[in-house]
Amino acid sequence: MPPTAPPPTTTTVRGPVPAARRHPAPRGTGGRPPARDRARTALAHAGPALLGYLAVRLFGTLVLAQWVHVRHHGLWPVLAKSWDSNWYLGIADHGYEHALHAGELNDLAFFPLYPVLVKAAAAVTPGSRASVALVLAIGFSVVAACGVFAVGDHLHGRRTATLLTVLWAALPVGVVQWMGYTESLFTALTAWALHCALNRRWLWAGSLAALAGLTRPTGIAIAAAVSLAAIAALVRARRWEWRTVAGGLVAPLGWFAYVAWVGVRIGRWDGYFAVQKVWDNQWDGGVGTLREMRDLLVYANRPPLFLVLVTLVLIVAGALYVLSLADRQPLVLLVFTGVLLLVVLGSGGVYFPRARFLIPGFPLLLPVALALTRARRTVTALVLGAAALSSAWLGAYMLLVWNGPP
After folding, report:
1. Which residue in 215, 209, 193, 194 sits closest to 251, CA to CA?
2. Which of 117, 166, 171, 226 is buried most, with the most CB atoms less than 10 Å from its CB?
């Protein structure tokens, strides 16, 4: 047979070449888009979630402002100078105590990163330290909302991430996110540490976890999560990766450093735990928590509404953790929320702030966000609306009616 001639070369025309291909966007180092363009794209992607977050929190603040006006109080003192806020401001003004006195509450129970940031920012900005502390808390809450969205988007996509962010804004005690407290800073550091761990950026994850460990006692939860996840990554890879090892080792340094410093400052190896004992806040494995729940739900004739709310939050949080296990969330999320619950529920100390202590545990809301993603839009809107309304009312009640710290 005669040899077959090769077919003639043809060019298929598929339409006009897009402008992006005819005129490529400018590239940064390594062929990536410039950092400004990447930030703009990320912000646009998270835009609906951030708008939803701000809408919920602004609505709650407006409800609180109206309630404050009726009661002839001031909104600024309620948010910037109440309860724990005054302890942080005292540390920013005068530093820590040098000794532990029997029977006297001690500011060494409060971790240093937030007051240090307040003092540093107040040194270069106008206004009082209380105002600076409040502005920082609000700013950190937005950074935290971005981190919550980033974790949800990485795991389940934009819609679920947006719902997760709005649900976090509408927590029953969500008003604390815009107070002079450490919950917003801690959640921001925790959320981005979790995001870095999910993306195997272990040095960043460990560094952020170390900073979180300098922010709150529950920093041990994110330290344990990052360290154990790094160990699991090394086992899976079956090879030595120095960044993974370094991230896992750095993660707990912040928490351990402050606990050790307190011991040195007051001259006893268990100094920090002695301080916590003065605050009546030692770990008992959950016996005290169960006793409080029993007294409130079974024996009390007219239990305080706020304490009933705290009890319901703890019960729901435990149920959501079981659902998180059933959903097989990534190890780093399960360890973080598991240790957080272990610390909060296992404490035998003061009961009323337990709901606030769980604010950083946003991964517990993932099962709810996933359910709303699959629900009809009407159902989703009703649930989010009810959550926002209840959060606004309960936040005002907590700060203006409940006779105690949030």
Report:
1. 209
2. 226
